[in-house]
C-alpha cells in the first residue's frame, strides 16, 4: 500500500504538479510529479502502470477532484481525445448516389475538379468526365 503526502502544488507544463513526501520514485529531476496521477495512485494504493492514463472527465486539467479522474488504458484514452471527424455528405454527379467524404479530402477534391462536382468512384468520375468532354466538343466550347 503506497501513499505519498502532497506537500506542494504548482502549475507548470500544462498540468498541475506536486511535490510529495516521500519523494515519488517517478518524480522529475526537480522532485515534481503530475498531481492527477499522484491523487489516483494514493486512492488506488498502488503505482500506475506505464500503459495507464489518468483522464480528466470534464476536460479541465486543473480539476483534480477524484470524482473527475478515471484510469484508462492507451486505447480508451485515445478514443476519448481523438473522436472521428464529422463527414461531409455528398451526391455523386454521375450516378446520384449518396456518399460521405472526410472534410480534408472533400476540400482537396473540390479544388482539383474544375467543375466543382464530385463522383463516388473512379468509374463514375471517368463516365462523368467523358460526358462533359463530349458535351464541350459538340458545343464548340472545347475548341477555344
What is the structure about, briefly put?
By secondary structure, this protein is of the alpha+beta class. Helix content is 32%, strand content 25%.
Structural features, described:
This protein has 144 residues and is of the alpha+beta class. The chain has 2 domains: 77 residues, no CATH class; 56 residues, no CATH class. Helix content is 32%, strand content 25%. The strands form 3 sheets. A 3-stranded antiparallel β-sheet has the order 1-2-3. It has a two-stranded antiparallel sheet with strand order 4-5. The longest helix has 18 residues. The radius of gyration is 28 Å and the shape is rod-shaped.
Q: Share of helix among residues?
A: 25-40%
Number of domains: 2
Number of strands: 7
Rg, please?
28 Å
Q: N-to-C SSE series?
A: EEEHEEHEEHH
Strand content: 25-35%
Spell out the key features of this protein.
about 25% strand; about 140 residues; rod-shaped; 3-stranded antiparallel sheet; alpha+beta; single chain; two-stranded antiparallel sheet; 2 domains
Describe how the helices and strands are arranged.
Elements: E1 5-12, E2 15-21, E3 32-34, H1 35-44, E4 52-56, E5 69-73, H2 74-81, E6 88-91, E7 98-101, H3 103-112, H4 122-139
Antiparallel strand pairs: 1-2, 2-3, 4-5, 6-7
